[in-house]
From TrEMBL:
NCBIfam families: HAD-SF-IA-v1. Pfam families: Hydrolase (PF00702). It comes from freshwater metagenome. This is Unannotated protein. SUPFAM superfamilies: HAD-like. InterPro entries: HAD-like_sf, HAD-SF_hydro_IA, HAD_sf.
Length: 229
């Protein structure tokens, strides 16, 4: 018996990308600490340094517990306050070093090696791209520095629109920004909790968990936007 032919799913005409840990790698905790120590030299023993690096590597996981509604991503002031509250709960950190850690945080964020090639391929294919982020930091500076800004059609940031993922309102804002129906959009992110909020609108969603290498597997996105035959 022959199987019934399956019709193609609607083509992907718009891709919505999360930024942090999806297109942009936050870097290593050791690199972050090293950059802060250049700005604010402070003696640390080998043990103290190792303990602080381990803490910094997971500091934003702690924010999911202390700030589950992600209110830190609604303003710069709230984000900085939550950071220092988290830091105070970890290994003892000199206030000057704590300030330096926050000041250089975005300096060590860099685009994954496959971010620009993926965005260029989507642009060449005529696929609209919106970046969507829970961000309580001036992340546009990272997008500009890393060469991502010219390759996207829109950027929607939580602190600018007043709501955070997984709230469906912010996903609808992203769809509107690129004039794309939900059924023709693909969301790409690293968080099953935050980035799946658009599924109730009908947005197909691809989760690429955080990786430690320079390549994040973003080429899969290009494959998913190719028309089926």
């Amino acid at each position: 018996m022959r199987r019934a032919a399956h019709s193609c799913v609607p083509p992907v005409k718009g891709v919505i990308f999360d930024i942090h840990s999806t297109l942009v790698d936050q870097g290593s905790a050791s690199g972050w600490l090293e950059a802060a120590l250049v700005r604010a030299p402070h003696p640390l023993s080998v043990h103290e340094r190792a303990a602080l690096e381990s803490f910094l590597d997971l500091i934003w996981e702690g924010a999911r517990i202390s700030d589950p509604e992600s209110t830190r991503d609604l303003s710069f002031a709230a984000h900085e306050r939550v950071f220092h509250e988290l830091l105070a709960a970890g290994p003892g950190v000199d206030p000057a070093l704590g300030a330096a850690l926050y000041a250089v945080m975005l300096d060590v964020w860099h685009a994954y090696d496959d971010a620009i090639p993926t965005l260029e391929a989507l642009q060449d294919a005529g696929v609209k791209v919106c970046l969507l982020s829970n961000a309580g930091v001036p992340i546009r500076t990272v997008l500009d520095r890393e060469g991502l800004s010219p390759l996207v059609d829109a950027v929607v940031l939580s602190y600018e629109v007043g709501c955070v993922k997984p709230d469906t309102r912010i996903f609808q804002t992203a769809l509107d920004a690129i004039s794309c129906p939900a059924g023709e959009a693909l969301m790409v992110g690293d968080s099953g909790r935050d980035d799946s909020g658009g599924t109730t609108l009908g947005i197909r969603t691809l989760i690429l968990p955080r990786t430690s290498g320079p390549v994040h597997g973003l080429g899969a996105v290009v494959s998913l936007t190719r028309p089926c035959h």
